[in-house]
Every structure is written in C-alpha cells, then in structure tokens.
Fold:
Amino acid sequence: MSKTHQKVVLVGDGAVGSSYAFSMVQQGLAQEFAIIDLNKKRTEGDALDLEDATAFTAPKLVYGADYDTCKDADLVVITAGAPQKPGETRLDLVDKNLKIIKSVVEPVVKAGFQGIFLVAANPVDILTYAVQKFSGFPRNKVVGSGTSLDSARLRVALSKKFNVSPLDVNANMMAEHGDTEFAAFSSATIGGLPLYDLAEAKGISKEELYQLEDDVRNKAYTIINSKGATFYGVATALMRISRAILRDENAVLPVGAPMSGEYGLKDIYIGTPAVVNANGIAEVLEVPLDEREAKAMADSAKTLEEIAKNGMAKLQG
Ligand SMILES: NC(=O)c1ccc[n+]([C@@H]2O[C@H](COP(=O)([O-])OP(=O)(O)OC[C@H]3O[C@@H](n4cnc5c(N)ncnc54)[C@H](O)[C@@H]3O)[C@@H](O)[C@H]2O)c1
Structure:
C-alpha cells in the first residue's frame, strides 16, 4: 500500500472523528480524506474548514462523501457511534453501537472496499470483533484502537511519577479498553530498566503503582465529568495507528488485535502490543504476564466474550 496517492475515509464526524481528521491534516498524512456522517452538512462544513489548514501543512483533497467513495480507499476509520454519557460505561453502549456499526460496515463492503478497517467506536473491542464478522475480512485487516489511548495515559502518568518524558516510557495497558483493563507493569521499562526495579530504587511502592493504574483506568470518566467527552487523546492515537498502516511501518503499538491462541484466547479482539503495517496487524506480540496480570487478562476476556455473544445474538434475534 506504500503508493504515492493514499486515501482515507472517516465514518463518524463527531468529536473523535473531527479531531482525528484535524490530526491527519496536521501530520500531512494521506493525499485524499473523505468524510461520511449521517449529518452530511457537518461533513461539508468540516471539509471546507480542514482544507484551509492544508495550506500550512501538506496538500490534501478533503471532502464530504457517500459510501461509494470507499471503493478505492486504503483505510476506513470508524468513529460513528454514541459516546458515553456521564455515569455510563463503555459496555453500556453495546446494543445501540452494534446496530450503528452494522449499518456502516455493510455499505463500505458493498462499495468494494478492500483496504484496512480501523475501529474506535465503543465498546471498541466488541465492535472491532463485529466489524470483522460483518465484513468477512481477513482478521489482520481489521484493527481496533484497543488500549492505545489507555497505554498513552499510562505512559503519561508514569512519566510524571518518574520525572521522565512519556516518549521514553515503554508500558502498556492491556485487555479491554474499559473497566477490566490492567497495566502490564511486569514488562514495563524506562530506558531499558524494568519498571518494578526502578520503582524500588526510587522508593515508589507497588500500592502507588496500582493507584496510578486505577487513575488511568478511570481517566475517561474524569475527563467526561469535566468536559463531556474525550477526543484529543484518542484522535492522536488513531493518527499514530493510521501512520503505521499508511507508511507500512512495522510499528509495535498497543491495539485491539485478534487472538489465535495468544494468552490462551481465541475468537476475540483484545488490547495487546502488535506489529502494525500496511497489512494491518502483521503479528501479535504475546507479552509475558505475571500472575496478577494473567488473571486480569483472563477475567477481562471473559467479560468481553459474554457481552459480545449476547450483543451479537440480540442483533440477529
Ligand atoms: N476507542 C477509544 O479510545 C475511544 C475514546 C473516546 C471515544 N470513543 C468512542 O468513539 C465514538 C464517537 O465518540 P464521539 O465523542 O465522537 O461522539 P459524537 O456523538 O460526537 O459523534 C458521533 C458521530 O457519529 C455519527 N453517526 C451516528 N450514527 C451514524 C451512522 N449510522 N452513520 C454515520 N454516522 C453516524 C453522528 O452523527 C456523530 O457525528 C463513541 O462510541 C465513543 O465512545 C472511543
């Protein structure tokens, strides 16, 4: 896919989608960017506003579109769906957003799309799984944003605790993008030093690290309670994953990836580091987990499996 003209289609021009579009313009990624939403007027306004920014960054054709535009796209990014309201969990969104995602995937596939799907609408692990089922695409060509945002939040929190740049913190949140996720502290490093060793040397207790993990898990609620929605962080995470796909980077990123036996799991999408390139998910990297983390992974997967099974059954029935 590393061709000179690349085309991205965004479906869902709300807070997350429009911030993602802005981030893609800032980075000068893709030469063509089409925007689809139920609210067509908004896509037209956003396209006109975004094209003004291209005069300062890189040339790009930005326009509001219909589904037939997906035919020759390299990447379709789905941010269409209801967001969490204060007090709502991501899993509470499953029924309404499964319906929306089905109504999005069908016309994309019908248009003849053969690129990569990137899914961000919530509950993202279940919706990514559903996109793969509804599209019938090879599993590697459907990527979820998974715990990419959560891992960024963890790196930021650790960077403050250890007084180093978040760019130099190598740490992942794993499993569900939601309340059952966990911090994979046992494999985390800063400058090649194991995080637990560095914490001990600096007098930072495990309890403090677990508190930090909990704050990361709840950060979306903190943001939603203060400004109604979260969008800049996830939009930038989506840009980062898009760049890995469009530039065929083989980047190791925490994403929502399909399991084929890793962590003892199958037929599920879940947050784990994976190699991302022009083929989507090139390889899942199975991170060694300690006892606490292995239990959290198994419990999280069980929750996701149950909700996915019930949600898909309701949709069919
Ligand atoms: N993966 C993550 O890390 C992450 C982070 C934040 C938000 N989200 C999720 O992203 C989704 C979008 O959040 P938001 O804040 O942008 O919401 P929003 O309400 O601002 O935007 C949603 C957009 O989707 C559009 N839409 C709804 N149904 C559609 C359909 N059938 N076809 C086309 N467009 C449709 C709406 O018109 C709206 O413009 C939510 O599900 C939210 O929970 C994910």
Notes: The pocket of nicotinamide-adenine-dinucleotide is lined by residues 11-17, 37-39, 79-84, 93, 97, 100, 103-104, 120-122, 124, 145, 149, 177, 229-231, 234 (CB under 6 Å). The chain has a mean pLDDT of 96. The first helix runs from residue 15 to 26. The longest strand covers residues 266-277.
